[in-house]
Automatic annotation (TrEMBL):
Family matches, as InterPro entries: CodB, Pur-cyt_permease
Residue span of region Disordered: 444-465
Main location class: membrane
Residue stretches in coiled coil: none
Keywords for this protein: Membrane, Transmembrane, Transmembrane helix
Subcellular location: Membrane
Membrane topology: Multi-pass membrane protein
Species of origin: Streptomyces laculatispora
UniProt name for this protein: Cytosine permease
UniProt similarity note: Belongs to the purine-cytosine permease (2.A.39) family.
Tree of life domain: Bacteria
Keyword Ribosomal protein: no
One Pfam family this sequence matches: Transp_cyt_pur
Amino acid sequence: MAAAPPADAAVHETKSIGSDDYSLSRVPRDKRFGFWSMLLQWLAQSGSISQFTLGATIGVGMTFGNAFLAFTLGAVILEVVIFAIGLAGMREGLATPMLTRWVGFGRNGSALVSFVIAVSLVGWFGVQNTIFGNSVSALVGGPSWMWCVIAGIAITALVIFGFKYMANFAKIVTPLFFAMVAWSVINTLKDHSFSDLIHSPPPGDTIPLAVAATAIAGGYMTGAIVSPEMTRYNRKGSHVFLQSASSMILSEYIVGLTGVLLGHLVKSNEVSHIVLSTSGAFGVIVVLMSTAKINDWNLYGSSLGVVNFFQVVFGKRVHRGAVTIVLGIAGTLLSAVGIMTHFTEFLTILGVAIPPIGGIIVAEYWVVKKMRKPLDDTRESETLPKSSPTWVPMSIAIWIAAFCVGKFYDGGIPALNSLATAFVLYSVLGLLGWVKPYGTSTLDDEGGEDNAAPDARTSTPVGAA
């Protein structure tokens, strides 16, 4: 009988398909990134053609002033959620799927959260790829599905190797994208009156403020909920706030409102060609790279969710790199077959289904604080608690109730309604002692968590920048 391969060989084999990036453990403090590296990661999330398209879509149906108000409401909602959840991720060094085991949902509930988030992020992966494929196809020719496949393969290849490579990629892409966009937009608007565009009436059917704010906040709400995937690499809470706020200002007030002006100018939401047509082959390359920089986080967050889902449901630890390959193929196929045709419907559902997760996390971690004590006890040692609650049925009931409020109540902003409902219900019921976990699951029963083992830290080489 052949001898079993040594442990080092197994680790080497695992590393050959990319980095696992602490998918089921805390990120050690000595593996965190510096302020400027993380800032570029955040700003990179602001640079996408889809944000211009969203701004133009809103601009077609709103005055500039109302669009400004809609982006303000959306940005405030997002920043509050991002900071409250992102700060928890920074303190614990945990991604959202793992965080929810001790913050509101329990072990089995975290699997459900992971599944919903993973599906949503793969959908966004398809949306971004479709926008790129259609835009490049219209500019340089060739079928859009071909460009979708090219972009999908490139993004998947990047994400396989994890956070360190994604951070290095951001340092290249972010400055190039915004320099190119600034040149294209200025070149387009220089012969038009800026004042006339601001005061011009909306060229299309009126869009209600609540609908616009929901599209803005709901469209990035999944990103807000999974912000710990990024902030777990932060060193300070002040960095989380400054970086996320900078990203909101850039994406909503600069990119989004520029899209509004372009929508007023061409009287359509088809504005991507403006950026691409004035930039030539270089512009196509930069937009491809910026699409990759947005979509790498969609794919990255989805992979972390699937890893947690498989360990909880099947008791198997799957490597994040291998999961990335499978999800990348799935997302690329979704974009190639035209998921973008359901863009509006996708945003609407996302805008009310995902926010309650954030409301529950914030309520438990910062208000109720009854399930997070094991995290407090193990934070300094940078290990995970030996056990977690199995189920928290009341959290699932609150999630469903909050979704129904956001979906079926006509007043206010649906994304905010569902978020606030979940936060208030969990806070009140939790403080009254009605939110109770049932059962206890130990990490040893879940397929071998390499939680506290010393070599767990060295198996995923993510260096601080």
